[in-house]
Amino acid sequence: MNRTYLRGDMYYADLGRGIGSEQEGYRPVLILQNNTGNKYSPTVIVAAIMGPWVGAISGALYNIISALIGGNILGSLFAICNIGSGLIVGFMARRKKFHTIPHVLVATVLVALWNAIVGSPIAMVVYGGVDGNTGTNLMIAGLQAFGQDLMGAAFLARIPVNLLDKGIACFIAWIILRKLPENMRSLSGGKKAASAEPEKQAEEAK
Questions:
Q1: Could you say which of 27, 67, 122, 126 would form a disulfide bridge with 74 (CB–CB 3.0 to 4.6 Å)?
Q2: Per-residue 3-state assignment (H helix, E strand, C coil) for 55-112
Q3: What are the distances in angstroms from CA 132 to CA 78, 100, 138, 153?
Q4: Predicted confidence band of residue 22 (pLDDT cuts 50, 70, 90)
């Protein structure tokens, strides 16, 4: 049976045997390719949906690679922020504590505080307390003008900025999670959880 795949659809896919760090076996995947490509291309571009640790490591690798490309090795320390953010949201989702708007708000506060607590001392080491975010820097300057020390200003200035920034990211993650079938929402991404799905999909395709 010919099947039309649409961007944003979720399926279990057989990724075969992985090479090196590649994912393998049956995994939940999200279709990323646009619908024109899905209609005419013999292949489909997907992203494997994995668990909290994979998300955390992916975020960390993004920071590290960006820092190396930009020539600022110390900037890779911000990977710690992404690791914490990924684990907070990932484990909340795994424990079914990321399914409602209040859950998203709690996750936003936790992620914002984590990034402020961890990011402030890192910014002190890497950038002397300020960074490339104009809004944060203006708030730091304003807080210092009212007598706040640089470390305290760097911390306090990051809280509202992180609440907005991380809030948007958490909301997008929540929307994606809501699109997942119920049996994928634990984000386990494991072979055990996926073992029964290929047969189910095959039956539905008949």
A1: 126
A2: HHHHHHHHHHHHHHHHCCHHHHHHHHHHHHHHHHHHHHHHCCCCCCHHHHHHHHHHHH
A3: 13, 33, 11, 16
A4: low
Can you say how many angstroms the Cα of residue 140 is from the centroid of all Cα atoms in its chain?
Answer: 27
- Rounded distance between C-alpha atoms, residue 89 and residue 101, angstroms: 13
Q: If you search the block for the tokens 């090795």, which residue do you land on?
A: 73
pLDDT digits (tens, 9 = 90+) for 188-206: 554 444 444 444 544 454 4
Q: Which pTM was predicted?
A: 0.69
Mean pLDDT in residue range 149-171: 91
118 contacts 158 by C-beta, under 8 angstroms: no
